[in-house]
């Protein structure tokens, strides 16, 4: 991932009013804390309490383990709704009133949006770079901007293909190694009234992950602003493939993965597989009567050899917010939580986090065979290698949420005749307008 400067984030002429519009809430109204003095650690013997806002369940049980061994630095967690379900609005509102917690859960794709409102602490000022070797390099790059670090990777979702062997065996198939093979198997499955998978027209983040795997890089930052290209060959390969799959009725578009319709179809053998993030294992375990009927295979790769073996779907950070009075201690807790065996195991067992960002330890329970997944040790067989097969050039941009909403709205028009290929071009122009309306400099990459 290419690092870029705050000037590139902002583009030409972005002032405080524009920052407020970008956040979609009251203007935070604070200057960057990253140009001021470094806040000193607490004095020996001084007791403090850090607050952490997160949508992870039972996170306090994780914090309690830290609290037992750190009597002077206690952590209190507060549950908030998921980011775009109200959590981010709550955080932005707190920043606007000079308040809020020390730490907050922020998705990797949302880091640039928080940076634009001066909402995050550059953790290199407090020694974060000294911990970089503890993290997956691709994930570390997703939180590294402007030569700084603006969040500590908390979990992610390397992708693989969860499948039902008995459904594939109906047509004599095994897990396809390539997307073209995937299409061939999907065609045979339709003869048995089953689908290979579903395609969520209302959630463009899934398609973004497929395009990322193919080698796409939709945005790039340069000294004079942003460069956009959402119709590059890699993206078009993915869009043309799924256009064809939808047109041939090879994928189910009536519902998305893990919806009530999906669970019903999966339980009846009407769906052979789902290509998703590693965290999907916990959801698939909710399929009625599914124990022993599922396995996991590597994600199919794009034909032509220009793409990557996997992709990431989802991923969060523990970010230190600008109003924290104790950023060094907040950083120390975030690193402990995401790299120590105690912290990782506690987050898996209590909070059900996605994939650990620390390559040295995936979690105790994830090193064992799974009875539900047919006794397969799929985390070490599939997802551990998948973390090494990622697109390092993909980077998120300042209006990611609005961009994905625009793309999702366009994909929904597939039902009325607008192809995914056409939508990419239309959405690109609309997103460029969003950038310009917010005072961000952007241009189309030359062909």
Protein described:
Keywords: Cell membrane, Lipoprotein, Membrane, Palmitate, Signal. This is ABC transporter substrate-binding protein. InterPro entries: Bact_solute-bd_prot1, SBP, TAT_signal. With about 450 residues, the protein is an alpha/beta fold. The radius of gyration is 22 Å and the shape is globular. Strands 1, 2, 3, 6, 11, 12 and 13 form a 7-stranded mixed sheet that branches. Strands 8-9-14 form a 3-stranded mixed sheet. Strands 4-5 form a two-stranded antiparallel ribbon. The protein folds into 2 domains: about 5-155 and about 315-380, Periplasmic binding protein-like II (D-Maltodextrin-Binding Protein, domain 2); about 160-310 and about 395-445, D-Maltodextrin-Binding Protein, domain 2. It is built from 17 helices and 14 strands. It has helices spanning about 5-10, 15-25, 60-70, 85-95, 110-115, 135-140, 165-170, 180-190, 205-215, 235-245, 260-265, 280-285, 325-340, 340-350, 380-385, 400-410, 420-435; strands at about 50-55, 75-80, 105, 145, 150, 150-165, 195-200, 220, 225-230, 250, 275, 295-300, 310-320, 440-445.
